[in-house]
Design a protein that fits this description.
The complex is a heterodimer of chains A (115) and B (111). Chain A is mainly β and 115 residues long. Helix content of chain A is 0%, strand content 54%. Chain A has strands at residues 5-7, 10-13, 19-24, 31-38, 42-50, 53-56, 65-71, 74-79, 88-95, 105-106, 110-114. In chain A, strands 2, 4, 5, 6, 9, 10 and 11 form a 7-stranded mixed sheet that branches. A 4-stranded antiparallel sheet of chain A has the order 1-3-8-7, with no helix packed on it. Chain A starts with a strand and ends with a strand. Classes of the chains: A mainly beta (115), B mainly beta (111).
């Protein structure tokens, strides 16, 4: 299995632009997570899905952030409009378990820089 | 509230055992102890988890004290590639797979 695949690997954009991050989870995994990592705040859970349905989005910082999972093999995290403080590494992770054993498989992340 | 406490950094000599401590004095009966690590520029990687018994797999061993208030992750023969940030996390089985990462321990394996 190729693991969790994220794209792009790096994204540089200007303030005010729309940014879309993409994730393909491991086939057969029921859960999908979006995390954000910064030096100041560490790894933060933004939102997670179970069987394509958003379960908890309390970590999404503002209405500028939105996430979708149109099918079991694809998810997007969109920031519109982007701001410099959104600069971070965004990780997607998936999990095959339904509660017991939080064994998450992480992608390589998207390094986002908003100028 | 931080559920776990870990030293911010540790050094270990290559080939020696690395013992990474974690304090989780407020752990509940239904909470598991998980360990992940993050090598520079990569996503976190699952290492091991346990409830109350000691656990061992191909990567590491997990020793949980009898009162479950602390645990130790053991890398038996550390290599340079084990240099990473190690995260100790407690999570209930009904937490919906929501893992909260703290600051972790930055382990530096030196030749």
């Amino acid at each position: 299995d190729a693991g969790v695949i994220q794209s792009p690997r790096h994204e540089v954009t200007e303030m005010g632009q729309e940014v879309t991050l993409r994730c393909k989870p491991i086939s057969g995994h029921d859960y999908l997570f979006w995390y954000r990592q910064t030096m100041m705040r560490g790894l933060e859970l933004l939102i997670y899905f179970n069987n394509n349905v958003p379960i908890d989005d309390s970590g999404m910082p503002e209405d500028r952030f939105s996430a979708k999972m149109p099918n079991a093999s694809f998810s997007t995290l969109k920031i519109q409009p982007s701001e410099p403080r959104d600069s971070a590494v965004y990780f997607c992770a998936s999990s095959p378990y339904t509660g017991l054993s939080e064994k998450l498989f992480f992608g390589s992340g998207t390094q986002l820089s908003v100028l | 509230d931080a559920k776990t406490t870990q030293p911010p950094s540790m050094d270990c000599a290559e080939g020696r055992a690395a013992n990474l401590p974690c304090n989780h004095s407020t752990i509940s009966g239904n909470e598991y102890v998980y360990w992940y690590r993050q090598i520079h520029s990569q996503g976190p990687q699952y290492i091991i988890h346990g409830l109350k018994n000691n656990e061992t797999n191909e990567m590491a061993s997990l020793i949980i004290t009898e009162d479950r208030k602390s645990s130790t992750l053991i890398l038996p023969h550390a290599t340079l590639r084990d240099t990473a940030v190690y995260y100790c996390i407690v999570s209930a089985e009904d937490a919906g797979n929501m893992l909260t990462f703290g600051g972790g321990t930055r382990l530096m394996v030196k030749p």
